[in-house]
Specification:
Distance between the termini: 48 Å
Order of helices and strands: HHHHHHHHHHHHHHHH
Helix content: over 70%
Number of domains: 2
Largest sheet: none
Number of helices: 16
Number of strands: 0
Strand content: under 5%
Radius of gyration: 22 Å
Structural class: mainly alpha
Shape: globular
């Protein structure tokens, strides 16, 4: 490489830095993905909760409000991604159109399409932002056109691919409920504790038996029963992490830690996991136990929105999602006492009992030392 090439490369890198464009796994795989989950929470998830409240006699107005919230899921995800990517105002506002298009045309893979397409459109918008005297025209034009074209030609393909992957997970779960129960529970549970979004992953993969419709109103063919079982396994893994860490670390963190981890997030333990990865073993082992119990014994299935499959006990939204599926009109069976027992055991009792027992053994052999689980 000659000096001229080096100079041009340095200029380009300096331009990217000036535009705050950082091409990295953290920026796109953690920051953008986590923000997308927040957008989902603020639209689809809160809308689902409001519609559930609307089922109470005399509170039907909440059903209408919840419908409005659910309808803006695509724009909400996109603007959240734009915010995480530190987009200028014009780029951020333009991303609303991109999110709507990508989510609508992405069908079953709507959330994943929004993530992929919004990132590209926003970064292109940032490149041209404030570079011309007609910024108010150029920046929205570039952002919306790039996002719109990608939505038109790529979002449907992403939806098809996600549909194939979701069908495979659903098929594999029905064929090998034990093996898939272990794998889904462990992987999604670990994703919940990692600084990535388990909720966004579950939404992108459609881990729910809830029927999905495309932009034209046609039913997207998915293996509902298998995906519902996979959603149940995902909830088991997430609850094992959150409840497990909350109870196992009670010695160090008392009631405050119990609440912040048990109904907040087990991600709070990530700094401690980096220091001593062995503290992650007990809740992960328990997730490998509760996952197949959920799929093989209690047949625990998610028939509410897929995002709840990755929530665990965060705001109790995982168990609430199961219950909303029971009474929301799509659950195929009559709810029995056995279902309630399974929900309580898998989401709360087994993680709360087994995880500290394994943790106690680890403390005895010196794998977990005093204050290894202490939250800052």
């Amino acid at each position: 490489m000659d000096n001229n090439q080096k100079t041009e490369e340095n200029k380009f890198l300096a331009f990217l830095k000036k535009k705050d464009i950082e091409i990295s796994a953290k920026r796109y795989g953690i920051d953008a993905l986590g923000a997308m989950a927040l957008g989902l929470f603020a639209s689809l998830l809160i809308g689902t909760i409001l519609k559930a409240i609307g089922m109470i006699p005399g509170l039907s107005v909440f059903t209408e409000i919840g419908g409005y919230a659910q309808a803006v899921a695509g724009p909400a995800m996109a603007v959240a991604i734009a915010h995480a990517l530190k987009a200028p105002p014009l780029v951020m506002y333009s991303s609303l159109t991109v999110g709507y298009a990508a989510n609508s045309l992405g069908q079953a893979g709507g959330p994943l399409a929004v993530l992929f397409i919004a990132v590209i459109a926003v970064e292109f918008g940032k490149l041209v932002s404030k570079e011309t005297k007609v910024d108010i025209l150029v920046t929205p034009f570039v952002t919306v056109v790039i996002g719109g074209l990608l939505s038109k030609f790529l979002a449907p393909a992403i939806g098809i691919l996600v549909g194939y992957l979701s069908n495979f997970i659903g098929w594999a779960t029905t064929q090998q409920p034990f093996v898939m129960g272990v794998l889904v529970s462990v992987i999604i549970g670990m994703a919940l504790t990692l600084p990535i979004s388990s909720a966004a992953i579950c939404a992108a993969l459609g881990l729910s038996g809830m029927q999905v419709y495309n932009a034209a109103g046609a039913l997207v063919p998915l293996d509902y029963n298998g995906l519902a079982l996979a959603g149940g396994a995902a909830i088991a893994g997430c609850c094992a992490q959150m409840v497990g860490f909350a109870v196992m670390s009670f010695r160090e963190n008392k009631v405050g830690g119990l609440i912040s981890q048990g109904i907040g997030t087990s991600m709070l333990q990530m700094p401690n996991i980096v220091k001593n990865p062995r503290i992650w073993i007990p809740p992960t082992v328990v997730s490998a136990i509760t996952g197949p119990i959920a799929t093989c014994v209690f047949k625990m299935r998610m028939y509410d929105v897929a995002i709840n499959s990755g929530m665990g006990t965060c705001g109790l939204l995982g168990p609430i999602g199961i219950m909303l599926g029971w009474f929301g009109g799509q659950y195929p069976d009559t709810v029995k006492a056995f279902d309630w027992i399974g929900l309580i055991l898998i989401c709360f009792v087994i993680p709360a009992v087994l995880t500290p027992l394994i943790g106690y053994f680890f403390r005895k052999i010196g794998w977990i030392k005093e204050n290894d689980l202490k939250l800052d």
